[in-house]
Amino acid sequence: MPRHGMTEGMTEAFTHVSASTAELLALSDEERLQAIHQDRWVTYARAGRVLQVVQSLLDLPRTTRMPSIAIYADSGMGKTMLMEKFRRDHPSRFNVDEGREVLPVLAIQMASRPTERRFYGHLLYEIGVPFGSRSTLVDLEIQALRNLKRMEVKVLLIDEVHNILAGTAGEQRVILNLLRYLSNELKLSLVCLGVGEAREAISGDVQLARRFEEVPLPRWQGNEEFQELVLTIVRNLPLRRPSVLSPRSLRRILQATDGITARIFRLFNDLAIDAIRSGEERLRDEVVESWRPLGEPAGAFA
Fold it and tell me: Which residue, 185, 193, 201, 230, shows the most beta carbons closer than 10 Å to its own?
């Protein structure tokens, strides 16, 4: 049976969780379980630093050769979640006086085998501009440039940029030239995200590569940064009792997850769900030691 037994004022006593999480502690067990299953952004130090770097690009005055960044990481290290977070933080707005939409941040995913036509098509699709199946490449280019200028796009986020390598050498050069052209013509910064091979993709154009600052997201290791991550995650779990984990548990978490962000979040979500269902309401070394993943970890934090 779900347990309530708490009033809203009582949440002030729960200092072991963040303020927003304390509000969840008054909910029933089922409601707290639903909260754990939902995608909730948890701001940890590393993610905050990356978001600050991307924000700095948005804040820069526009010039012909805008700086860009490339975020490299293994699958599951949080690249896509970072991109979605930044996009949500900078939604479109409607300029009533001029009767147009302003979209400072545009996010797209590189096609599995990108071509100029597919790339422009994805741009137009993401900004809601219809185009005909018989539109020529020139038509698509003009439509994309006209609309992105009108919407004042300043930062273009491109996920899965390593997909450029799926094309031939000639196709790769075309896409890289296209990215450089868009950055010059629209005075926008590029934020490219991908696995390690993305570095090889971008380096195919020397002029373009010079504009990129590399921001790697390495796997987590047993250091202070990882301890801060664990503390942040635990403080955002809707458990009513404080959790205490030993250094041995931290080592076990790294071993079980291979230092992959998505797997770490999955582990803590699983343990929190078990803690609520059992009535334990906290995490202990014993449950960490016994945790085993069910199949492949979820990719929600990829």
Answer: 193
